[in-house]
Design a protein that fits this description.
The protein is mostly helical. The protein has one domain. The chain is globular. Keywords: Membrane, Transmembrane, Transmembrane helix.
Length: about 130
């Protein structure tokens, strides 16, 4: 379980870098009501990189701050996931089709739990 917590940071760094390496994928799945698609793509990618890097930091205060930052990032992109699940016809290139888009919704809870575990690794109940 400890290894899984350590992989959280690199996972989010990789996911964030992909926003810069393959921006077309992210741009095509952005809801039309969001403004500034390109800027939002790069901002969310940068947020994932920064949060992931902070989750890898040995300093627990930095790790927790990075965890909260990553949790807020997940919360910020969740409305787009809902939009995609409700409008699957607009996203034919997303793997898994409508079932995949719907499955993404509860799967975000897995990411939240993973980040929570990573940001709190090494903490005891007596830590403040």
């Amino acid at each position: 379980m400890r290894l899984i917590k350590f992989l959280c940071g690199p996972f989010f760094i990789f996911a964030g870098v992909m926003h810069f390496v393959r921006p077309g994928f992210y741009l095509q799945i952005m809801p039309p009501w969001l403004p500034a698609h390109e800027a939002m793509n790069y901002a969310s990618g940068a947020a994932e990189v920064v949060g992931g890097a902070a989750l890898m930091c040995p300093d627990p205060k930095v790790r927790r701050a990075g965890g909260w930052f990553t949790l807020l990032t997940l919360l910020a992109v969740y409305p787009a996931n809902i939009h995609m699940a409700l409008n699957p016809e607009d996203y034919p290139n997303v793997p898994g089709g409508q079932a995949g888009l719907i499955a993404r919704l509860p799967f975000q809870a897995v990411f939240v739990a993973w980040v929570w575990g990573a940001m709190n690794r090494g903490r005891t109940s007596s830590d403040s």
